[in-house]
Amino acid sequence: MSRVYNFSAGPSMLPEEVLKKAAAEMLDYEGCGQSVMEMSHRSKVFESIIKSAESLLRELMNIPDNYKVLFLQGGATTQFAAIPMNFMNKSGKADYIITGQWAKKAFNEAKKYGDAVAVASSADETFSYIPKTTREDFRQDADYAYICMNNTIYGTVYHELPDTGDVPLIADISSCFLSEPLDVTKFAMVYGGAQKNVAPAGLTIVIVREDILGNAREYTPTMLDYKVHADAGSLSNTPPCYTIYICKLVLEWIKSLGGLEAMAERNRKKAKILYDFLDNSKMFRGTVVPEDRSLMNVPFVTDSDELNAKFVKEAEAAGFVNLKGHRTVGGMRASIYNAMPIEGVEKLVAFMAKFEEKNS
Ligand SMILES: *Cc1c(COP(=O)(O)O)cnc(C)c1O
């Protein structure tokens, strides 16, 4: 068996240890005589799986008791509508920062439900930077302010959170979930699809402060009302059981490596190898301003579309797959999530160096 290095933006690589453990437990989970895929979500065994997933997540992310952890379906995209329905409930205003397509989609959805305003944007430079904002940019009676923390397509990240004054901050953390420590208390809610860094597709995790729950609009579908899921311990209906189980294995893996501090160190090391190469290459260059560079998604280009295409093709043949960049940026993008081993990045950079030598 030979496995490729998968640089996909998501779904993406899972730790090999996790896949092996899941394979070993496939037919018989801990002696219960059945697979996690088959068991009732109301069973004692599954109850212990979802409870340990939650407690591991709380431990790793240091989530305070006044926050609820919800295991949902529908992807990050469904939350784009759920967020305004649940929280645009006092002034009916919400302020969005547009740092890329995901933020823009969330903003466009919110506009359907109330007075959503884009208070800043980096569209003018193809989202290659994080726009600077000050407290004055936010309407102080807004029900919430919204950011996309790590911009998967463009490769930018908030290294420092915007000052929104008293306006509660909500962040999409889909593509930086568990990649480094995050101070949850700075947010009213963070959430993300699991398929980038946490689990296979099918699970969306919402971490939300208790006191802002319970005021969803009357017409909110039951399945989109966070309070319903919070009250039911994410078991209001059938949750994505198997994905939650893999999530638990991934959390155990992170814990075994030393938690989020250790993960951050590993991720900084990986990203540095790639950025250092890009900064010194005469053929390849990164597309993002250095101060806003993501640790997870690294877009880069050459000056020629032909060379880009040739690179992607040859890289794939050499076992480095899914390096083609998003159509709105062009070129390449290497997503180097938690599960990408350091050797994967080292080998990619060696391959890039050889490609540069051969083609210049
Ligand atoms: C992938 C991604 C999404 C979309 O997630 P789905 O689960 O497919 O809805 C939203 N936001 C960000 C930042 C993403 O990376």
Can you offer a commentary on this structure?
The protein has 360 residues and is of the alpha/beta class. It has 2 domains: 17-256, Aspartate Aminotransferase, domain 2 (3-Layer(aba) Sandwich); 258-359, Aspartate Aminotransferase, domain 1 (Alpha-Beta Complex), CATH 3.90.1150. It is built from 9 helices and 14 strands. Helix 4 links the parallel strand 3 (93-98) and strand 4. The model has no long low-confidence stretch (mean pLDDT 98). Pyridoxal-5'-phosphate binds at residues 10, 75-77, 102, 148, 152, 172, 174-175, 193, 196.
Strand % is: 15-25%
Under the CATH scheme, the architecture of the largest domain is: 3-Layer(aba) Sandwich
Strands, total number: 14
From the spread of the alpha carbons, the general shape counts as globular
Number of domain modules? 2
If strands are numbered along the chain, what order do they take across the biggest sheet? 2-10-9-8-5-3-4
Radius of gyration: 21 Å
Cofactors and ligands present?
pyridoxal-5'-phosphate
End-to-end Cα distance, whole Å, is: 35 Å
Using the coordinates shown, work out and report the CATH topology of the largest domain: Aspartate Aminotransferase, domain 2
Question: What's the mean pLDDT score?
Answer: 98
Mind telling me the CATH class of the largest domain?
Alpha Beta
Low-pLDDT stretches are none
